[in-house]
Amino acid sequence: QDSRSAELAPRTGTGKMAANFWNSTHFRHWLDASDSLLKEAAAMRVKDRELFSEEQLMRIRVCYAQFLTALAKKSNLRQRVAATAAVYFKRFYLRNAYKEHDPRLIAPAALYLAAKTEEHTIPAKSILSQVNAMYKADHPYPYTIKDLYDYEFRIIAELDCDLIVFHPYRPLTQLCSDAAISDCFQTAWAILNDSYRTDLCLLYPPYIIAIACIFMAASILERDPLPWLQSLNVDATDVIQVVNGISSLYSPSSIQQSGSQFLEAINAKLHRHFSA
Hints:
- The protein is an all-alpha fold.
- The chain is 67% helix and 0% strand.
- Helix 5 crosses helix 15 (260-275), helix 10 packs across helix 12 and helix 12 crosses helix 14.
- The radius of gyration is 19 Å and the shape is globular.
């Protein structure tokens, strides 16, 4: 794996970042162990299918990624905080079932914790105030500040205290400093934000996701990204797999196009289950 970072570093100026990443818990405990974690997650989804259909399980992942982005915006938190919270949320449910731990509580608890990690601390009551304002149902939001505090520590334990997350934002910025693709930056950034509605952040290194987002942006802007991609000397297979994963978001018939009505339906089902 270190050879991949060495290949990328001379061309992008990301040598220090790459070296830190390959030695990090993000890589060693999560990406490098992704096969065993995905097996564990598959066992959790077997439990969840006792309550949810496969489509509903997919919508939970998408809807709560969108919810975290909206909650972060309303809480005046940076997009990076929402991205870190999304990773925490996804990692938590690699090891836990939705039917046993309510996503309506895990999501705001993950954002509260992520704000601390990213040094943008916000009071728990402010997070819950926004959640209550956003919560649309025939019943009030059922959780309290104490519940949020309790699950903050539960999330930390389930993540094995691995709270530092490497995101593709920095490599994307560094890669776009190349004059040949500098005009792709804004479009690539928007695509990267959308990518957190997928599970790609659990499967691929940040720089591969960054390259894929730039590749897509260049294509959208009717540029030929292939010469630039070839100049990086990275595994194009990984890049194309990420491109395909993100592209699935934009299909009109995609389940990834989950609006607020789907979140309301999921929340109603969660409420019935956890109130029983």
